[in-house]
Amino acid sequence: xxxSLKASEDGLQIVDQARRxxxxxxxxxxxxxxxxxxxxxLRRFWARKxxxxxxxxxxxxxxxxxxxxxxxxxxxxxxxxLPVVSTAKAHxxxxxxxxVGREGAIASLNTHINQGAKIIVIQATGGVGKTTxxxxxxxxxxxxxxxxxxxxxEKDNIQLVDSVIxxxxxxxxxxxxxxxxxxMLRRLKWQLQTRKIGVLIDNLEPALDGQGRxxxxxxxxxxxxxxxxxxxxxxxxxxxxxxxxxEPDVNVAxxxxxxxxxxxxxxxxxxxxxxxxxxxxNAMHKAYGGNAKVMGILCGAIREDFDGDMVxxxxxxxxxxxxxxxxxxxxxxxxxxxxxxxxxxxQLLCRLGCxxxxxxxxxxxxxxxxxxxxxxxxxxxxxxESLRNRSLVEFNNGEYWLHPMIRxxxxxxxxxxxxxxxxxxxxxxxxxxxxxxVETLExxxxxxxxxxxxxxxxxFEQAGYVIVSRRDTSxxxxxxxxxxxxxxxxxxPMLYSINSIINKVKDDRILIGLYxxxxxxxxxxxxxxxxxxxxxxxxxxxxxxxLSTDLSSSIYFYAKRLKTWSLFNTxxxxxxxxxxxxxxxxxxxxxxxxxNYNDLEHGLYNNEKDYLYCLAFLNSFLGFKESALSYVxxxxxxxxxxDYCCWSQGYSLLxxxxxxxxxxxxxxxxxxxxxxxxxxxxTHYTQVKAKALSGLAELYRExxxxxxxxxxxxxxxxxxxxxxxxCDLAEAHYQRALTYQKxxxxxxxxxxxxxxxxxxxxMEAPNQVxxxxxxxxxxxxVEF
Length: 784
Description:
3-stranded antiparallel sheet
């Protein structure tokens, strides 16, 4: 069957009629929930510009009561008998001729699964073929989706499990992960319960201690495995490891993978046109226990150095081969041989050890060419070919990676050489140059590889620069990688990465941006006081930078801009804490700057007047009606010129909608909130849409249209829970409670009041808690 479908034009008309009968909007949250899909997928369904997942397509159709076969493009219906496996994350596929002699292993895995196993640990020493078997199995069993987690080879580089789950939800399931670990686990489990998913956790042993349990910094991986082992999930997880996993709280099956038999070795050598001597082949096979990687290396050496003559190779090397009969020694021997030959291939092999092969599991040809900086350009591809022929580098479709044991040897030799720093710098520059714009998660992850290379050589300034440097996107000029990760929903990796280096960066020009990004990330996750501290530090770093006498005009503008925006962001944090007078002070400082100095000299673009709608909002809440009216009129003049970023465009409408509501001008308030929703849907800005829905609910409450108000409250809360916006979620619960209170249903108001108090308490926002308690009418009650 095909793994993705697209609606025909006639089919869309059928769906349109069906959803009108249900009185559903095209992007109705009710529809999203009924189909158990995402808003983004439903939008793609209507757009018809790209195919969507087959199961999501069917669910969308069934939710409105239509037959999906009448909706899909006819050409796609005809292909449904063809088996196609969808793999959401690119990992190296295994060419068939490399996969020999594993029929029994696949049968054993199937037996475990038929007996109810959800997790199988494939255990064997290095090079036996664990990863090859796992990939081949997962790609051949008809899984709807295959998730890969290549474990880092070095303990210090292992990903936090929070980041892994966040990436899977965002990248592979097109779902906002939420901000709390347990919420991410819950959402992942739901995905695994609704679809047939394959999961590969490769090379687990660096994450385990001597007793086979997860090392302390990564013990939360146990919780991930508990979800993957749950009897209700449809997933199958294969884990490859050289050592036994011994976590008592996780139920796993263990499969000890044997070496390949003599027949498999013979087939492999025959496929590569080696002149086979059976007695020699059997001797090599026996010496190395049928190790699959050894088989490939021996074959490559015979073909490259002895023109396919097995007898000649054996005559010269049998002594060493029979004395040192393990893969590590064979790998060392191959490195030594290349080194003795004075081969440029040896230098390339060692330099390839600098790549991580994790978030981006393979490296394109250009990533190898950049490491051959001291080889004439015309000879570089021949050097790569030499490594391929020796089976010392894995490759497929122009993408390369190293076997774990070969990378282990490569990185050890590279660290000890004079090439360590140069190789990492060249690799970092390659990744940076290879990503011109960050439009997708894949773009962001590729661009961020540069960060890791600079950290390896302790160049923390350049690592920080990777985060704060700016690239243009199709909808915004000059977006930093930190902001891109915020936009793409990859909060945990960026939080961890900034915190890892920020105390080691000395350049104030870089610290300005790092603290600003860290403040934004803390605010989004509800850590408001930490966000304020970061914005204060960004302000101080900007002031220090401006004391320099040799600043370029661009650095001067950038420092001024971040200094001004640190005030702005602090004001926003004070609003979140409901410290309105303090917030007004910060926005008035920005107003003073804008009125008394040239905008460009103070890091602001022409007509950038974000402070106006913030001051209009604050004055309307503080009871200064005339001031609020003055500011909102000024904001109306410039609102159509606000185009610097999505945040400003969306939030200007939200603040003005709330201002008009407080001033009693409901028609204008309705207009702003509806404009905000239209903008949010165009730019996929979930948070703006959710806040606008909450604003509309407030207006309908004022008009005593409680049914519509409650509907908007529910939709807003569902969206905010999805993205984990703690402060906005607390406010949404508070507004819902007020609606129940106005309806005279005190009992139903208690639960949302309590949830708002709980969330505001978690944010350490006492003014917000007091606001809710007063509205609840129980300000003398001790709350949890």
